[in-house]
């Protein structure tokens, strides 16, 4: 091609056909056993090579196609697939940490990931400590710190951390930086340009887009880190199903458009919520009331359609629970990234003692004016009595 094309254009280019059969989508290749034409080729086959195949667990053309597209989006050389976002977190911990080494996590990290770190600390001699993501200069680095985990914005309470500053502080101490980039989804935040050595994402969200697949990824530009991750990936047996990959491959060409359209809708709802009685604060990174908003403005180009609101402290939790149940278009459920809007109450009074209860909203693909009308009727019935 004569001129440079963007990653988003490359993403939708058809693969090479096979003989006279050529279509716009790749075939779906399943395998446990991969057969070799002779013993010599069996012995010579390199399991680490992304262009060779030796066993179903280590990849088929379908899983590799998805890995290549994810690496392309992240602008890095390597991506691996995992059976969930949480499995991506566990791969990074298990590949990079050994007993006596320390991992530092933000206090607002995705809780199951933090629980895993605590389990490793309790049973395998890995040390874990937590830091305030809004105070990079207070991160408790020690001589045995190996890994700094960054998740920005943080889960549920949405504080936007300064990945660039955190990475500089970590690298000055030879500490690796891993980013949970699920919220920014490879679209809104260039985590590698800002210093991350490794990024993981829950593809379960926007990349799947259908609320029907669990999958995760781990990507890096560093060959040695990739090799370490790949080896542990193989040792742990973390293969993914080609069917699931095919579902994600089908959604991938339009996930950026969905993300950007849902961003516009979510900001409209979030702004509308900012002026509603009963609500003290809207925690949406693109709105000024969100801690770390200035960092979002500087480093992000868009926002996910996932944000939270804090209610007045006087509003009883029972009313907040009834509010969530009174919503007709928002359903009650974990995860996000699909077509259907979701709402879920969380208790974060340990993090925001002054405030009341919190509800996290995920804006799907409905008409946003219908969503606003739905929230309005639910507020009127349960909060603004
Ligand atoms: C920020 C973040 N990281 C990781 C995960 C884990 O992803 P999965 O549900 O695919 O295990 C989630 C899921 O909610 C998440 O929100």
The helix tally amounts to: 11
Based on secondary structure, the structural category is: alpha/beta
Reported for the largest beta sheet, the result is: 7 strands, mixed
Shape-level CATH architecture of the largest domain: 3-Layer(aba) Sandwich
Flag low-confidence runs.
Answer: none
The CATH homology group name of the largest domain: Type I PLP-dependent aspartate aminotransferase-like (Major domain)
> Can you tell me the CATH topology of the largest domain?
Aspartate Aminotransferase, domain 2
- The overall number of domains is 2
Helix content: 25-40%
CATH first level of the largest domain: which class? Alpha Beta
What is the CA–CA distance across the termini?
A: 63 Å
Strands, count? 11
Give the names of the bound compounds. pyridoxal-5'-phosphate
